[in-house]
Design brief:
The complex is a heterodimer of chains A (126) and B (317). With 126 residues, chain A is mainly α. Chain A is built from 5 helices and no strands. Helix content of chain B is 43%, strand content 16%. Chain B is globular and about 60 Å long.
């Protein structure tokens, strides 16, 4: 078993260092901007470490239910994409809409939890 | 930047002393420089060091011609003062008079000094678009004709060039196929990238329409849909036009300036516009896989999910 602090604990300190010490020390606006992007990127990785695995499990379970078969997550997503593309699955079907919305919200919780469209989707309580 | 070449160029533009030269922005394919001659400010837009013609869109020389033509129709644009020639030894490009104003979308939606401007801005954008759509394209070289079906096919190909299959994108392509409003408005000059981020705004509203490189001939409703894509609202989701106005204001401005709005088509183009930006973000993943080491590039690839939630909201509407 690996010792602590956890990867999240360590990365949180990297992001803090970038924001509190690196950014103020940079005079070139372009480089300061990149440092901010870097801190945001570290935050994203922390969120994925916290949420990613659980999201993949729930997405996989929904796909098995929706498609009536089991496979890898990538393979099941390919089947779903094919079925929507060839018209055999109606993307307006409430079960399909619910799955796509839940999956997209799981991604946004990692990618950009402050995004306006994500907040609006949560408010609608899909 | 070759200062000697810029010195010779400045002498052709106006008498006086060349002052400081500032790189404003620009990526690998284009550069934007600001300079002044006796205090009067100018902007040089020129091809990057690669000097390669753009993979899509019009050349810089053609872009300058478009800006002049649009200005003659009453569209607020920067004044083009010189188009680069081979003898200028600065590559391809053109020089514009500097336009005062705010170009950063995030500031345009919230800067308190622009509160008055925001009350008029959507209507002004509508009027500018109607005037762009009235430009006579016969004398303008380099514009390609793109039907709605061409554009869907182009972005479907770009999507499938990536390795990841995306059920939400498939649903959006299905919707676009099954919901096209039918007959298309007569083909016009389309700006192609008219959005918050490519406009200059001052205290009295719209001061200039920028970045004409994606101009083409096609359905004018494309521009009315693109400016409403949520990615350009900078968090102001309730104000669909660039985060500063309503569709009704945009359409009223467009119609008052002589345009004819097909609302169903504009909504169709908003779906396609959202999908287009989504596919563009997935292109960043290919660049990362090819070894691009930019953190920003990697983070743009993680913005695809933003367009997916927007597509789902439109699919449910």
């Amino acid at each position: 078993m690996q010792d602590e602090p956890t990867p999240q604990d360590i990365l949180a300190r990297v992001a803090h260092f970038l924001r509190s010490e690196v950014m103020p020390a940079l005079s070139a606006p372009h480089v300061a901007f990149q440092a901010r992007v870097a801190a945001n990127a570290v935050d994203l990785v922390i969120r994925q470490l916290d949420l990613g695995a659980a999201g993949h499990i729930t997405e996989h379970a929904r796909l098995v239910e929706l498609l009536g078969r089991d496979d890898t997550l990538t393979a099941l997503n390919t089947v779903l994409a094919d079925r929507i593309a060839d018209g055999s699955l109606d993307p307006a079907d409430p079960a399909v809409v619910a799955h796509l919305t839940a999956t997209t919200c799981e991604k946004l919780a990692v990618d950009q939890p402050r995004y306006s469209g994500y907040r609006a989707a949560l408010d609608k309580d899909f | 930047m070759n200062r000697a070449a810029l010195q010779r160029l400045a002498a052709r533009i106006a008498p006086g002393t060349l002052g400081e030269i500032v790189r404003l922005s620009g990526g690998a394919t284009q550069e934007l420089w600001r300079f002044d001659i006796d205090g009067a400010r100018y902007v040089l837009r020129r091809s990057g060091s690669g000097d390669q013609p753009p993979a899509i869109g019009v050349s810089l020389t053609e872009e300058a011609g478009l800006i002049v033509a649009a200005g003659k129709r009453g569209v607020p644009v920067p004044r083009v003062v010189h188009i680069l020639e081979a003898a200028d030894a600065l590559g391809a490009g053109f020089v514009m008079a500097y336009v005062e104003g705010e170009a950063l979308g995030a500031r345009i939606v919230k800067d308190p000094t622009l509160a008055h401007a925001r009350t008029m801005l959507a209507a002004q954008c509508g009027a500018a678009l109607a005037r762009i759509h009235s430009v006579d394209t016969d004398p303008l070289p380099g514009l390609i004709d793109q039907s709605p079906a061409d554009i869907v096919a182009q972005w479907h190909m770009a999507y499938r060039a990536g390795t990841i299959r995306r059920p939400v994108f498939e649903a959006a392509f299905w919707w676009l196929d099954t919901h096209h409003p039918g007959e298309t408005s007569p083909a016009r000059l389309v700006h192609g990238d008219f959005r918050n981020g490519n406009i200059m705004v001052g205290p009295e509203g719209l001061t200039a329409v920028l970045d004409w490189e994606l101009a083409h001939i096609g359905d004018p409703m494309e521009d009315l849909g693109w400016i409403c894509v949520n990615s350009w609202r900078f968090g102001r989701i309730g104000l669909p036009v660039g985060g500063f106005g309503t569709r009704e204001e945009l359409y009223a401005g467009y119609e008052a300036a002589g345009g004819c709005v097909d609302r169903a088509a504009a909504q169709w183009w908003e779906m396609l516009g959202t999908l287009r930006w989504g596919v563009m973000t997935t292109g960043s993943l290919a660049r990362v896989r090819d070894g691009d080491m930019s953190i920003e590039r990697a983070m743009i690839a993680r913005r695809t999910s933003e367009t997916e939630i927007d597509l789902l909201a439109m699919l449910a509407a």
